[in-house]
């Protein structure tokens, strides 16, 4: 008796994707007659027509669309299995890899790890990097959690987030900008700023604040890397926006100075993870620490 298998689901997915047997044949490296026979066998097993044959094109039917949803879900589960199999013993070792953005205050990072350990003692390995780098590691399954000041997106993957808290944000600059403290925020008129990209909510909030204050400013440098933003600010290339807590070390060293604070302007930090089809029990218990 014929049994449903992953090969037929994959053939069906590629055929639906390409819209033709010829296109799917090239990708799958299978002859068209053999591929056509496999599709027919799959349809016979399901007892439904999945495509309408219009010339050389295959147009998916309503039933085919319904089957396609399940085929994609099964393919996602297959991918997840392959991705996580090398870490099958992690549940025994209780080890988690946490990607931490450099801009996250160490106090928030320490509190997050402390809460994780209180619920489920584990070995926590911290990997620091830029937001974009860590977002890629998260979606690739290289880290279990992401801690940062924005919510990364991933095509085709469902993300889960929890807020870790907020901190007041101020405008910071090199010593040469100290005089701007007088008459703040009007003193910022026409001044150069080093800003994050448009995907950062803080930038939108700051632009709204400046608009309401009737102050124009110039974004002379746009950079995602917060470490680079600070280094450029130290060199006097422009003003930057950072949370007060995360700037303590820089302020104490006299490298950057607070020019002024924008009332109501806060930076929010997030704990994020890729939602898996089969969740690890340890991850579930850790997330309960933030409920």
Characterization of this structure:
The chain is built from eleven helices and ten strands. It is of the alpha/beta class and 291 residues long. A six-stranded mixed β-sheet has the order 4-3-5-10-6-9, sandwiched between helices. The protein has a two-stranded antiparallel ribbon with strand order 1-2. Helix 1 packs across helix 2 (21-28) and helix 1 (6-18) packs across helix 3 (32-46). The model has no long low-confidence stretch (mean pLDDT 83).
Based on the model shown, name its key terms:
single chain; 291 residues; alpha/beta; Arc Repressor Mutant, subunit A; D-Maltodextrin-Binding Protein, domain 2; 3 domains; six-stranded mixed β-sheet; two-stranded antiparallel sheet; 11 helices
How would you sum up this structure in a few lines?
This protein is an alpha/beta fold and 291 residues long. Helix content is 41%, strand content 25%. α1 (6-18) crosses α2, α1 (6-18) packs across α3 and α1 (6-18) crosses α4.
Strand content: 15-25%
End-to-end C-alpha gap: 49 Å
Radius of gyration: 26 Å
Number of domains: 3
- Overall, the morphology is elongated
Biggest sheet: strands, sense, closure?
6 strands, mixed
| Strand element count | 10
State the name of the first-level CATH class of the largest domain.
Alpha Beta
Topology, element by element:
Elements lengths: L5 H13 L2 H8 L3 H15 L4 E4 L2 E4 L1 H23 L5 H4 L1 E7 L4 H14 L3 E7 L1 H9 L5 E4 L10 E15 L18 E4 L5 H13 L4 E5 L3 H9 L5 E4 L4 H5 L4 E18 L6 H7 L4
Parallel strand pairs: 3-4, 3-5, 7-8
Antiparallel strand pairs: 1-2, 5-10, 6-9, 6-10
